[in-house]
Structure formats: C-alpha cells, structure tokens
Amino acid sequence: MAEKRNIFLIGPMGAGKSTIGRQLAQMLNMDFMDSDSVIEERAGADIDWIFDVEGEAGFRKREERIINELTQGQGIVLSTGGGSVLSKDNRNFLSARGIVVYLETSVDKQFERTQRDKKRPLLQTEDPRQVLEDLAKIRNPLYEEIADIKLQTDEQSAKVVATQIIDLMDNLQ
Asked: All domains of the chain, ordered by start, with CATH?
C-alpha cells in the first residue's frame, strides 16, 4: 500500500475501536488518533463533564469540529465516538476522506465490555442494556450507510481484526 489513506473506525461503544485502532496504526506505521481523547484534551475536561455542562448537543458540536479537522489529515487511523455518525456532516467527512471501517459487535458483548466503565455518560442509567439496544436501532443503519468495510469484533483479538482490515483494504484498491 504505497499511499497512506486515512482509516476511520466507526461502531458502537465497546466494539474495540480504540484498541484495534492503536494496533492497526502500529502495524501500518501510521498515526493513531481517538476523537474522544482529542475532545477531552482540547476541552481540558472529561466527556462526562462536557455532557453534564453542555449536554449531548454541546458535546456533538465539539465532536463535529474535531472530526472535520482530524479527517483533513493524511495517513491517520482515527477511532471515532459511537455517536459521531449521528451527524450528517460527520458521515460526509468520514466517507469522503478515507476508508470507513465499521466494527460491529453484539449488544451482549457491548454490555459485557462497558458495564464497569463509569466514563460513558449515556450508560449511567438504571438499564444500560436497554440504552445499548436503543442506540443500536438508531446508529447501526448509519454505520452501515458509510462503511467501506464491515467486521465483527465479538470473539476476535485486536491483532486479528487489524490484520483482517489490512487484507480487506488491499482488496479495495
């Protein structure tokens, strides 16, 4: 792969976007970025604090600015937040500026991977499993809409998934 195309990882929380993204970037000798981490770094605050103070709408505005900026780079692996696809602009930025990889996972696996994580503001409710199911109904069709590659991550290691992404990208060219 002579030219380094951007690779954007999308999918629900708990799909492994950050872990797989780091692995993929290392294997391809590319820079790894996580849009949620960049938002926290620039705001000087955790995402849950941003949600508390600005609400989800305020957070999504920040996310849109960051994704627009980061996707204009070259040769990056970008892990996006699970809800980033809610914005039509984000979907356009992602699909126009790189290869979009949808990391798919079951609600059961999401629940298992996120149940002890207190840094996910949308899951701080009485019934986080129901929240995950509701989010999947809304977001999964949006992930599908812009995905160039789709991979199931439930029972696979980050290295295996990263290797599969590289193989599938070679087939796209």
From this structure: 7-162 (3.40.50.300)
